[in-house]
Structures are given as structure tokens and as C-alpha cells.
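Recall that a protein's primary structure is simply its ordered list of amino acids. Everything else, from secondary elements to tertiary packing, is in principle encoded there. The following example makes that idea concrete.
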Amino acid sequence: MFKKILIAEDYESANLSVQKVLEELNIKNVDHVYYCDDALAKIKKGIRKNIPYDLLITDLSFEEDHYTQKIKDGKELIKHIKREDPRIKVIVFSSENRSGIIDSLFNNYEIDGYVRKARSDNKDLKQAIHEIFNDQKYLTDDLQKSVKNLNAYELSTYDHTLISCLTQGILRKEIPAYLQKHNIKPNSLSSIEKRLNQIKESLNVANNEQLIAVCKDLGII
């Protein structure tokens, strides 16, 4: 089992809840912090002393207060910590349920497990710790299904760019100039309109406003 764990969670009740789970798993060497900057400092200190952490359990959102922080959220924290120690395992423990964001955490931030704060989160967290210790990825069945459904849409980087343009208020007729400026192809108006129509059809929406709303709900943008 993991020997040294760090909890980064700004709500005391959630922090204590995670600590209790680790106590029940008989994991003794546990540190906890309420700020992302403190989490990174502890990770660096562990590496310097040659006693690195095995696992980080972190929330995504951290509420701002009178303490000024350089690292504002869990995503940024994970990015910094992975640079310091790519071997550390990471579990995100959050209330976020948008499949696009969860999928991005696995693909872009290389997390090992995601546990949603919910009724059975203590049981899920225990299972996540066991599976990740055995070099498996962890995601509950319901979230796996929503992420799988999201991936079925097969939105490419190009698709994300088109949707992002619409979100920024760029008119459809102005998107070709934007793509040309950034050397993105295809950039003809007909190609753009064709692809946007295909995306809307796959997501079962009728217009650009609905497309933006659905993508925001899914966490795609």
C-alpha cells in the first residue's frame, strides 16, 4: 500500500473525511494542506529529502481568501507536481461531473483516478486507492459511461477550435480569416460550415447557440 500521501483540499470537512479514509486503510504517513502553493512546497521538500510522496489526492477548485496564491487550482497544481515528479500517482477528488473536463484530466494531466464527491465517495475513494496502487486507472462506472459517450462524438482539435471561435463571439463568416491567420486548415467558409453542421448533427442540436450551450455543459469548452 502507499506509504506517503499528500491531501490538498481547502474545505476542512472534506480534508478530514479523506484523512479518515486513509486511517481506515491503516496508512500512517499522511500530510494535508489547504493551499496549492503549500502542496507544491511539500512535494519539493519530499524530493529534496529523498522521501517523496507516493500519492497526491487533490480537489480541483480552491476558494480564494486573504492568502495570495501563485497556483490557483488543482489542474495547475497537478501540472506543476508532474513536472517535479512524473512518477507520483494522482487522484482528483472533486464535485465536478462534466465528462469533458474529467476526460481531459486523464488525457492531458495524466491523473490516475477520479472520485466524485457524492454519497458513496468514501467507498469509491478506498477502491480508487487500491486499484491505483496496483497500477490501474480508476473511474466509477457512471462516469466511465459519460466519458465514453463524449468520446463517441470524436471531436478533434480542429472541431474544438471552431467551437471556441463561436464561443468567443467570432461570426461564422469571420472564422476563415481567423484560421488563416493561425495557419489552420481547412479554412474555407464552405469547409467550416460543413464541419459545424456535422458537429451539430452528432450532438443533436439545431443551431450555434445550442451547440455552445451543450459543449459548455459537457465541459468540452
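The chain has a mean pLDDT of 90. The chain has two domains: 4-150, 153-218.
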